[in-house]
Amino acid sequence: MSTVVETDVLIVGSGPAGASAALALSTYGVPNIVVTRYANLADTPRAHITNQRTMEVLRDLGVEQEVVAQATPQHLMGNTTFCTSLAGEELGRVRSWGNDPLVQAEHELASPTRMCDMPQHLMEPVLVNAAVARGSQLRFQNEYLSHTQDAAGVTATVRDRLRGDTYEIRAKYLIGADGGRSKVAEDAGLPMGGQMGVAGSINIVFEADLSRYTAHRPSTLYWVLAPGATVGGIGAGLVRCVRPWNEWLIVWGYDVDAGAPDLTTEYAEPVVRTLVGDDDIPVTVRSSSAWTVNEMYAETYANGRVFCAGDAVHRHPPSNGLGSNTSIQDAYNLAWKLKLVLDGTAHPRLLDSYTAERAPVGRQIVTRANRSIRETAPVFAALDGLSPQTPEQLWANIAARKDATEAAEKQRAALREAIALKVYEFNAHGVDLNQRYDVGDSAAIVPDGTPDPGFARDPELYHQPSSRPGARLPHAWITSGTRTLSTLDTIGGGRFTLLTGIGGEAWIRAAEAQEVEIATVVIGPGQRYEDPYGDWARLREIPDAGALLVRPDGFVAFRHASAGPDAEELLADALRRILGHA
């Protein structure tokens, strides 16, 4: 172990969290090395739903259009279907992922981006290629073994699986993005809540031309209510579209207490045939793998100079499509803070805000994802399909909904209601965008003395913008000359941004007087940026001469309603607090 490699940040894991951490850090000019024990990036679809907030992150990091070019677009995602098989009877649908006309308007008002379906085996190369092009080093088949840390940095022991030897990497900080069985999190002693192995699931990746059963009702997800579908798994059988309409992934369950079955083609193909429902269609099974449904989250995301992100700190089923989104957003939150600490702009205390801000989000999404699984049970219950019974009994119950009887009418109503409840899984726009960091918990947010407005509508279903410190900057379309752009396009780039309007000249001077780089944006008639629709004026929640200081990750850090002679002092004090110098 004579060789010691040095870098600023060592990242363990090249999945969504690790790859996006590398991309953000390299974009900000921070040297970093990524090690992964594997010989390649993800080779199966895995995570796929990519929500608007994540697309905003990718937009800021300069890879949004690469993702859009490869992803399944939003309009092909939204007829979430419940059926007895793809070729069988349809029981109902949910307009999903922003495809309900009313929800579509909410999506368009909330963000300049559109959600999409980007399978993980396509997403990872986009993130990694951009990161490496900007300076990240990626080492395949290099396995993290252990680490020690001291006041100046972290020393990790790594095994080169090709050469068979070990060596050390000395970094100022270590990011553990090594998945749901994270060794970094274990070695760091991060306390966890919840439990692992709640239920057993199987992924079966296969190819088949299923256009005759799906193209007329385009969707990412087709849920199959068939005998055995409630055993383990995620509440029902699932046929997921990977690439329309020829590449697919099935999720099926198994009894976790009995252990995973032998995942041969002989096992997988009958499962595929059952869920497709057409034995004449040629099917090619590409791979099968077992996994467990988890309900676990870390109570703290860091120990000293070691930070964890993604599945390492929140482990949950794929319901709501939250996993890779939250992982990418974890990394985005952490990267700018590391950058400012490493270049001396911020005190290391700034890094304490990572756990303060992201751990509550992790707990929320673990709870929501597991609740979504349980919310599938009423669909079966409406068909009296939860109790043990023969397949013939289940089919008879399903057929009974077509009868002209009072009991059948009640069954139809119960089924409609149960399927409609799944909107909390498939159209939870608020879960995607309503993250607000608590000004009482995070030192990187300066309270402005206003009361928490709460949410006027269901916070899981509806996005509700706010400019209050701790909230994501609201999106509004503004103009600059002949160009139309989002308010979100004026921020980011690894720096703070101060937004003001006519009469806010004192804030501009205050920003220019700071040692910290702050971009300035003035929005108003005759200014560089104008608000022709008046949307920004309605969303900003402060007068023209007020100011919003926005962090590099797009969250409002400081807000003041007016400009005065003390603007420079107020801004300097806010920055001291945000950067940990106060």
Automatic annotation (TrEMBL):
Record-linked InterPro entries: FAD-bd, FAD/NAD-bd_sf, RIFMO-like
One Pfam family of this chain: Rng_hyd_C
Amino-acid biosynthesis is among the record's keywords: no
Superkingdom field: Bacteria
Keyword Protein transport: no
Gene3D superfamilies documented for this protein: 3.40.30.120, D-Amino Acid Oxidase, subunit A, domain 2 (3.30.9.10), FAD/NAD(P)-binding domain (3.50.50.60)
Ranges of residues in domain FAD-binding: 6-369
GO molecular function: FAD binding; oxidoreductase activity, acting on paired donors, with incorporation or reduction of molecular oxygen, NAD(P)H as one donor, and incorporation of one atom of oxygen
Keywords of the record: FAD, Flavoprotein, Monooxygenase, Oxidoreductase
Name assigned to this protein: FAD-dependent monooxygenase
